[in-house]
Amino acid sequence: MSCKSGKDAGTLYSVIGIAHSNKTGAIVYSDSEKVYRIAGLRRWDTIYEGKKVKLKGNFRFVDVEAIHSKNTSNASSPVLKNLAYQDYPKYYSVTNATWELYTPD
Questions:
Q1: Which of 28, 30, 75, 81 lies deepest, with the highest CB count within 10 Å?
Q2: Which of 102, 96, 104, 105 is closest to 1 using CA atoms?
């Protein structure tokens, strides 16, 4: 079973990791300890939550701390302020995402 999220720009990649839902939305946490946040997806369906998934899409690196320090004029933005204090200050935003349960060959 697989699904798809919204579209945007970035570099097309794929990654394998564990699906988790948290306060910032649906994420995939890879074995290399990188975090991938799926744009537009608030939480995983129960068939994916806590399971290994293969995630494909357009990946764009986001460094919230750097953005926050450079854009002090946007410091009052609720979205930027929320991102600045989230659990993952550096992550990959994944747009045009597709995912499926991962089963090794």
A1: 28
A2: 102
Dihedral sign, CA of 32, 50, 96, 16? Answer: positive
Pick from 102, 59, 56, 62: nearest CA to 84 = 62
Residue 66: both structure tokens together: 């750097």
What does R_g of the chain's alpha carbons equal in angstroms?
Answer: 14
Cα separation of 30 and 17, whole Å? 4
pLDDT, tens digit, 9 for 90 and up, residues 37-57 = 999 999 999 999 999 999 999
In the block, tokens 């991938």 appear at 36
* Dihedral angle computed from the Cα positions of residues 50, 33, 61 and 9, in that order, rounded to the nearest 10 degrees: -40
Distance separating alpha carbons of residues 37 and 68, to the nearest angstrom: 18
Residue 92 token pair = 């990959």
Query: In this structure, what are the phi and psi dihedrals at residue 53, rounded to the nearest 5 degrees?
Result: -130, 155
